[in-house]
Amino acid sequence: MTQPHPTDRDDARLAWARAATGDARLDLTRASFDAGFRSYWRGLADAGGAAERSVIVMDSPPELEDARPWLRIREMLLAGGVRLPQVHAQDMELGFLLLEDLGQQTFLQAFEAGDADADALFDAAFDQLLKIQALSCPDDLQPYDEAFLARELRLFDEWFLGRHLGLSLDCDDLENLDLAYRRILDNVLAQRQVFVHRDYMPRNLMPVDGGVAVIDFQGALRGPIAYDPISLFRDAFVSWPEPRIDGWLARYHARATAAGIPLPDFARFRRDADYAGLQRHIKIIGLFARLHHRDAKPKYLADAPRFLGYLDVVLPRYPELAPLARIVERYVRPALTSTTATQPA
Hints:
Number of domains: 2
Number of strands: 9
Radius of gyration: 21 Å
Structural class: alpha+beta
Domain Aminoglycoside phosphotransferase: 28-255
Shape: globular
CATH class of the largest domain: Alpha Beta
Strand order of the largest sheet: 1-2-3-5-4
Protein name: Phosphotransferase
Helix content: 40-55%
CATH superfamily of the largest domain: Aminoglycoside phosphotransferase (APH), C-terminal lobe
CATH architecture of the largest domain: Alpha-Beta Complex
InterPro entries: Aminoglycoside_PTrfase, Kinase-like_dom_sf
GO molecular function: ATP binding; transferase activity
Number of helices: 11
Strand content: 5-15%
Distance between the termini: 24 Å
Keywords: ATP-binding, Nucleotide-binding
């Protein structure tokens, strides 16, 4: 197979990594792929006579994805005792960081392998989540406010309904969609606002000695308290039976309450988790469509039906959201079936 020709960025990354590790023979291979512009690379560095150490280079081109927010959020989380990858070296002008290698298995990969104890892993995830939620939000931590939340919801209208499915809703349907969005926003904005990772899901959690490490935290905001817990269980890449999700939510609720995290009673918390999940799932369907049509990253859109399945589970619980359920059933599912049928194999 012909190997891709190295770019100037590849050359700069390798040169910087060799200088940062002191290993002039270091080579790098792609460690993971991201939906954004950031990339991660793994290498084995000669430790000068000692055993080789595996390192990760984070490549965050400054003109595309500034790494300073990652570092700023990292300092906030470290202050709360959250387990994160260590930073061995950094160059913000070039956009390179040399990180601790946490290994090659995330929670998601452990689940996919079929040999993971999900109860134990989620309990370890709660350990870190409770530390995150106990943090005091600094004044400069961006709020997950109404404008931000609504802008995310509108990705669904623009990119999934309009661009991907080619739907044009009439005035009544648009009014019903707006009303459903209003009810979702009212709920999540009324929840207690805490430090929110915003992507606290299995692919961003890694088993390490003594517990779990948290990655991909640069998008953290001050937002609804139920957002991160539900993100753990209604995930983009793995689905669980609803009775198990209810059990894990109850376990989190009990542990959080015992730790002094200010939660409502479980029935109200479960409702809040459903509503926070709806905002997230509607947003992600739109985001996946945008990645496909704007950014030429089609693989994510294949998981859109998973999120529609989450809507199917949650919407019937809340009669006030029936108009949104009708839009999904009447327009979205037939259009999605038609779109899927006409795509080339």
